Design the sequence.
């Protein structure tokens, strides 16, 4: 009867065998299990659990059949009263059915543990939604994990930030977390560096040493040098999560804009952020520079020498180019794009200083505008500070000719 | 978001900022204003504040301690016009102060004087990108 009921419900024979061979089912008679199955499946169905959800609950945690429905409702209501919307609680249970097995008495104790550590209610609600299994651990389990992280050098603030960002990190044991961090030592990172990387990207604690090695080899096969790659990972550990196709597509995209492959590798080795940007982001900026009067090949060449140009905001780009255009410097930056980085305030102040001192500044002697502050002081006896005070840049004023 | 508009940042730029740093959406006006005021304490003009924030959206998510750390490190090495330096290269704020120290100390160990190193970095702020 029980087997037929399960088959009619939608269990496969394999699932039925697994279910009936579980410890809970093998220690109870089928008549009892049949009654409990009907009660639990109705209750879950009334909560809008699909057949697949219900099967998952029963197969993952067969002992849920033994739970009292009234108590199960109390557990759900406990989380709802805490401030979590009902649907999120139910979704968490669908993800992690063993939440139903957490004792009523231990729930306030666990919440209180997190609150006293420093997690806010918002953090705790987020943790329940993102990593509900955290609440199936004992407070001793929590302490063990926190201790291991503290031992590694993380302070409370770091730990809260890390778990707030990625609560699933907390699902591994303290030993495992420690071991995962140590995996990165073999690449020459110091403990301090690993700590920082984990703070930025806690998900790197999921990765096995094989996975890390595989990722590094993938990037090397795409053209990156190992030494550069390790620096890239240090600054942007999130690139460990990028799939090979994703990076390959990014490289292809930049090549389609006119960059050579070796330029893309060179630029992204230093400006790894560019691997994160969407094609739309980059395209808009290239087109914006073109709209400011540069040819596409000039923009490509400028951004190979000075990739940071592409990260200026549109306002900053326009302001700089408009100013330099007004003093005849438009073409200077095609060959010397690094000078574009200088603050407009400083360029303006120096330009005004030279003009007032009858020093002609044009595209032929543009370097005067960008020389070191020590040199200007040696020649003219003025510091940058003096110039900035005397010739304050006012955006609307620009250069009056 | 209104606070960013009031800085003179266009909608298009704000979209790009959100792409780089989606957490900006979660920041309160007070948090953004606090960061603006930190820049003004460094004598940044409104224009420079706009440039720094719009070109380096990650700055808004840096903690106060991280920002102060970078500022103090540079100040202790003798950088004076920090408003100009950050206006030129807003990404300096994304560096670790230890990285800046390591870079400068490494050049000192190679025989350069601190004065020359500071002048070089001050005059060529793109060099910070190589740290």
Sequence:
């Amino acid at each position: 009867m029980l087997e037929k009921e399960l088959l009619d419900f939608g269990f496969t024979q394999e699932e039925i065998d697994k279910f009936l061979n579980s410890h809970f089912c093998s220690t109870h008679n089928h008549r009892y299990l049949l009654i409990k199955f009907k009660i639990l499946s109705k209750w879950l169905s009334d909560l809008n659990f699909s057949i697949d959800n219900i099967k998952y609950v029963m197969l993952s945690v067969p002992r849920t059949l033994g739970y009292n429905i009234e108590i199960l409702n109390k557990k759900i209501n406990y989380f709802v009263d805490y401030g979590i919307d009902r649907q999120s609680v139910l979704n968490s249970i669908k993800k992690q059915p063993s939440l139903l097995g957490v004792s009523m008495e231990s729930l306030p104790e666990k919440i209180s543990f997190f609150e006293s550590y420093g997690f806010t209610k918002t953090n705790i609600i987020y943790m329940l939604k993102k990593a509900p299994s955290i609440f199936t651990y004992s407070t001793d389990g929590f302490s063990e994990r926190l201790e291991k992280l503290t031992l590694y050098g993380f302070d409370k603030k770091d730990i809260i930030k890390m778990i707030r960002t990625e609560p699933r990190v907390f699902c591994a044991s303290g030993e495992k977390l420690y071991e995962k961090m140590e995996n990165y030592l073999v690449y020459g990172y110091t403990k301090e560096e690993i700590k920082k990387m984990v703070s930025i990207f806690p998900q790197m604690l999921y990765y096995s040493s094989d996975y890390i090695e595989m990722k590094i080899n993938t990037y090397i096969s795409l053209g990156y040098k190992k030494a550069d790659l390790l620096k890239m990972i240090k600054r942007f550990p999130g690139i460990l999560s990028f799939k090979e196709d994703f990076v390959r597509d990014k490289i292809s995209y930049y090549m389609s804009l006119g960059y050579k492959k070796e330029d893309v590798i060179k630029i992204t080795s230093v400006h790894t952020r560019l691997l994160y940007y969407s094609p739309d982001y980059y395209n808009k900026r290239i087109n914006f520079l073109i709209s400011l009067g540069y040819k596409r090949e000039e923009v490509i060449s400028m951004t190979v020498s000075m990739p940071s140009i592409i990260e200026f905001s549109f306002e900053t780009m326009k302001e700089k180019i408009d100013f330099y255009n007004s003093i005849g410097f438009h073409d200077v930056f095609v060959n010397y794009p690094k000078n574009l980085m200088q603050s407009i305030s400083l360029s303006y102040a120096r330009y005004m200083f030279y003009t007032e001192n009858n020093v002609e500044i044009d595209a032929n002697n543009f370097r005067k505008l960008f020389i070191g502050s020590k040199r200007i002081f040696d020649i003219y006896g003025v510091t940058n500070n003096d110039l900035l005070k005397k010739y304050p840049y006012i955006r609307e004023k620009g250069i009056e000719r | 978001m209104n606070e960013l508009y009031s800085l003179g940042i266009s909608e298009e730029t704000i979209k790009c900022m959100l792409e780089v740093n989606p957490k900006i959406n979660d920041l309160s006006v007070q948090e953004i204003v606090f960061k603006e005021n930190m820049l003004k304490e460094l004598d940044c003009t409104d224009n420079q504040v706009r440039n720094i924030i719009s070109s380096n959206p990650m700055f808004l998510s840096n903690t106060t301690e991280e920002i102060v750390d970078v500022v103090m490190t540079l100040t202790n090495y003798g950088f004076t016009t920090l408003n100009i330096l950050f206006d030129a290269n807003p990404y300096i704020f994304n560096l670790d102060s230890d990285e800046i120290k390591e870079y400068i100390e490494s050049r000192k160990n190679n025989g350069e004087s601190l004065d020359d190193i500071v002048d070089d970095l001050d005059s060529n702020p793109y060099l910070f990108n190589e740290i």
